[in-house]
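Hello Y.,

Per our agreement to keep a running log of every chain we model this quarter, I'm adding this entry. I've kept the format consistent with earlier entries: sequence first, then predicted structure.
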Amino acid sequence: MRNSLHRELQRMRSNRRGTVAAIVIPLFSLIFMATIFGSGKIEDLPAGVVDCDNTTFSREIISSVDASPIIRIDKNHIYSNPAEAKKALQNMEIFGYLEIPQNFSSKLNGGDTPTITCYYHNTLLAVGGEMESAFVKGLGEVSRKLIAERGNSSGITPLQMESIALPTNGIFASTYNSSLNYGIFLSYPFFFIFFQIFILTFTVYIIGTDITKEWLAASDGNIIKALAGKLLPYTIIFTVQAIVANAVFFTIGGIPGQSNTIPLLLSSILFILTTVALGTAIISIIPKVSVAISIASMIGALGATASGVTFPLESMYPPFEMLCSLFPIRHFIEANRSILYNDAPFVFKWQYYAAMLLTIAVAAATIPLLKKAIIKEKGKPIPTMWGVALVMLGGTIGYGVLYGLLYHPNIVTEIPVAVIDNSRTYTSREYLRSLNATQQINIAAECTDLQQATSLMRSAKAKGIVIIPPDFSTLVAMGIESPFIVYETTTSFLYYLTIQKGAAATMQAINGSLRENVVRNLPLPQQPAIAGTPTFNTCHVAIYNHNEGYGSYLLPIAITVILFQTMLMCAGILAGTRKIHPYRYIPPLFAAYFFLSLFLAGAVPYIFDLPTLANKLELFLFIFIFLASSLAFAAAFTLFIKDTEEIMLYVPFFSIGLIFLSGTSFPMVQIPHFWQVVHYLVPTSPGIIGYLKLNSMGGNLHNITPQILLLVAQLFIYGTIFFVCSRKIVNLQKPSGK
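Predicted structure for the entry above:
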């Protein structure tokens, strides 16, 4: 082992680019994930109003809604007709708007029940949910003010007025992440998702570029010693980086934890060992480094889905849920959730550690294959075009179809919750029956106390707890607002949103029937005054992605990133050979990708029932411009690539980061200014926004003029860089004297 270690240290000194990459890329990922979400709070989202009433009362409604910290209604976002507001929504100038109908105030005072319609932008899922919540709270305040005005003049107490407005009121408490900080939701798990992509590809790269008899001879033919000496320096580097990452997130990052740091650090170290072992298994089974590193990058990129951070695994089709169990990142994330969220004892997380140890054992069984490959010299490089074909076809068609299947359930339903009914009355049973009838929630267990319900959450058998207090029905009967408590897990963003939506919808439905009973229980002289209180209805319309499907939100974004990322990888493989003239691969690569885009952007949305609202001619004209800009970026970037495998170290790990930079997972206005600048440097940012505006929102080329102009500017800048630098490279490669 000592000889192998000494040999690898010498290789690290000679291959400084690889050594620097092992240090710099994970640290860059750490800085990115620790800062990309800014404060982590969604605030000041631009919203609009179509005020067709234009009265003092309609302006009071606008002020009440604008008081929410989540949204901001500027004067230039108050429109005279719905067409203007919809155009602004399509251009992403606003993320939602209210429509107050004509003669709203006069109809309200005349005894009618007019309707205010709330439209919100659901192409961006997180933004849509926050926008709807802000509208509900703001309009709820308006309703309470109307009741208060009548109640004050009729001698009704404030408690009674609150009960009339909300006979029952939910207290929604999220476990672990009480402030609903998106940085806490995403930054910690996604750093390790980035990290595992890099560890996988780097392990394959380090072993695959040294499958030689000289390496094996340095350890006297012992492949175990050879691997131990080669991987030890990098494993130490990765372990130190994991320790630094935990320190950053739990101190500077302010992520709360219910456990001491030792279990987290041990879990991180086991995860690193497991990922290194998986990378070793890949190169042992497939000793062709170009193929192995491509497969490693694809497996790593799927880790974001397999981890369950973005879409709950329980909501996938059973075969794909089982497939995700093969990924170490899934077990690491689950183990850390148990530690972070619940400070769960070992009995609740031993299976995750066992799964990672089993992965190491299975990987160890493949090591003899690596020795056999060295002896038989199977590690010789394959033709460049085979590597290009694998990335081009597997990365586009394969990924497009696989992601479509993984997310095809689209929505999260029947989330298991535990209930504690301390009231045990007709009213409480009616509420629970209505709650269980929603598509969002399934009452999995009825518990006698909080300890029993918490145990179910620790074991992941329940994702939330509904507590109904003993005086629930009594307070309603007395005309006093009756609260109930909903604890929601934040292990998955979609769990929290879905449970809250189901509980809130049930509350609104049952309040409609209870409100009549509350009014009937008032003294007779007060009943006519309250019965005549002006009321209005609200209608909530999710525009673009009306069923709030996660697949409908993510797949159009993923299609754009897949085209860009795989094109960059193919360009890097071709440029890394240095046998192909810098200009010669560009036309065929562009033609191939335009053809593939017909399948990805044209056929995949139809296959998986995604939005397809674009004019096809305009859509593919935009894709043509996007691919041209992407190829110019790829050509300029790959001028600095020295070999065909090196590109795989730089590109795959950051595919998810491109989504964050686009401003579609977290609002661009909330992202720190530095990353907003980077947003304009990468073709995927205008590519994603333009594709969403066209295909998911039904826009036209006029709506995406800013995105087209940015892509053209990028095409010119990166094309110029490539042209100037490649000419110098060609001149340097010419024999002297010619």
